[in-house]
Design a protein that fits this description.
Strand content: 35-45%
CATH topology: Rieske Iron-sulfur Protein
Number of domains: 1
Strand order of the largest sheet: 2-3-4-10
Distance between the termini: 40 Å
Shape: globular
Low-confidence stretches: none
Number of helices: 1
Order of helices and strands: EEEEEEEEEEEEH
Length: 131
């Protein structure tokens, strides 16, 4: 995975069973919502703070037995793989993590390139063509 390592939070700020939400400032001027969860032992898991079904922050959920439960519709995601427990083809985005100097860091992918205005207009026209 290509990307950059970003400091997310101090290790002591992450409580067992409760995801911790953070907004990470990116070098391109944008930001990204990330949540950090304490895994087994001294491991930490960082996820995109967005349920793949809707724009519901996963950081409002609960962690139990290695599963993160979405607070919006109660889908459960495996912390290690991001797979939904009952529908494995749907998954939350999990980022590689490391602990450096008391900080949890996550390897975040580069931001997706923004489409040109022409590309955006064409996609909007296609989406509304049959309505």
């Amino acid at each position: 995975m290509s990307g950059e390592w970003h400091r997310i939070c101090r290790v002591e700020r992450v409580e067992a069973g409760r995801p911790l939400a953070r907004i990470v400032d990116r070098a391109d001027g944008g930001d990204q919502r990330v949540c950090v969860v304490k895994g087994q032992g001294d491991e930490f898991v960082a996820l995109l703070d967005r349920c793949p079904h809707r724009d519901i922050p996963l950081s409002g959920g609960l962690v139990k037995d290695g599963l993160l439960t979405c607070p919006g519709h109660f889908w459960r995601f495996d912390l290690m793989t991001g797979e939904r427990s009952d529908l494995p083809e749907v998954r939350a985005t999990v980022y590689p993590t490391r602990v450096t100097g008391g900080w949890v860091e996550a390897l975040l992918p580069p931001p997706a390139p923004r489409p040109s205005m022409r590309e955006w207009l064409l996609s909007e026209a296609r989406a509304t063509d049959g309505r």
